[in-house]
Amino acid sequence: MWLMLHEVARLSLDTGVGTIDLYGNCTLHHSGTSAAAPEAAGVLALALEANPELTWRDMQHLIVHTSKRNHLYDREGTHNSTINGAGLEFNHLFGYGVLDAGDMVRIAKLWTTVPERFHCIAGFFSGRKVVAVGKPSQLELFAESCRDNPESQVRIVRRQIMVLLTWSNITFHLPYLF
Questions:
Q1: Is residue 163 part of a domain?
Q2: Does residue 153 form part of some domain?
Q3: What is the average per-residue pLDDT within 61-65?
Q4: How far is 125 from 139, CA to CA, in rounded Å?
Q5: More confident position, 35 or 107
Q6: For the purposes of burial, counting CB atoms within 10 Å of the CB of 32, is it exposed (0-12), middle (13-18) or buried (19 or more)?
Q7: Is the Cβ–Cβ distance between 69 and 89 less than 8 Å?
Q8: Residue-averaged pLDDT of the chain
Q9: Per-residue confidence (pLDDT) for residue 1, from 0 to 100
Q10: Is residue 128 part of a domain?
Q11: How many domains does the chain have?
């Protein structure tokens, strides 16, 4: 069973989900997050029904590992897919792709729960770091374990970097607008 999440991946303006609109009329043009969110909730409910022991982290992994790149169309051609650090294809417009309900349920039945999340702090730098105009600057911080679980190996799933800059006049140049 394929499930298409109707966001910007629509091939034309004439496609959508058949439903009843606010005025009780039949429409075939329901789309966007209003259509995608309940469809995704339904797929996740099917996976949870197949395996009630799934955690929120398991659900994240299932979404990422079972999504398909099913003819996703970027009209402007500006959002090319890249391969992330885990070797998975990711696109800033479409994420990991289209939810595949059948594949998600099949894999959910056999899923082994992923380890719980630990909060790790890689390091802290306090001091002066001079950054020359037009030249790259690098600061390395190392982590050997997590404070919540000193025995664990570090495996980064997400990263957050907090930078506090003190300067009288600073300008950021972004490569594109959001």
A1: no
A2: no
A3: 94
A4: 9
A5: 107
A6: middle
A7: yes
A8: 75
A9: 38
A10: no
A11: 1
CA angle 174, 177, 178 (to 5 degrees): 120
pLDDT for the residue 109? 98
At CA 175, angle to CA 170 and CA 176, rounded to 5?
A: 115
Q: Tell me the per-residue pLDDT of 17-29, one tens digit each, with 9 for 90 and over.
A: 788 888 989 988 8
Q: 100, 64 in Cβ contact below 8 A? A: no
pLDDT in tens, 142-159: 655 565 565 555 555 666
- How far, in Å, CA of 29 to CA of 75, rounded? 19
Say what angle helices 101-110 and 33-50 make with each other, to 10 degrees: 30
Give the separation between CA 37 and CA 30, rounded to whole angstroms: 12
Range(s) of the domain holding residue 27: 17-110
Instruction: Please report the sign of the dihedral spanned by the C-alpha atoms of residue 75, residue 84, residue 141, residue 120.
Output: positive
The answer to whether position 39 is within a domain reads yes
How far apart, in Å, are the Cα atoms of 120 and each of 23, 116, 153? Answer: 51, 13, 11
Per DSSP, what are the bridge partners of residue 42? none
Alpha helices in the chain (DSSP H): 33-50, 56-66, 101-110
- What confidence tens digit (pLDDT) does each residue in 85-115 have? 778 888 877 888 889 999 999 999 999 998 8
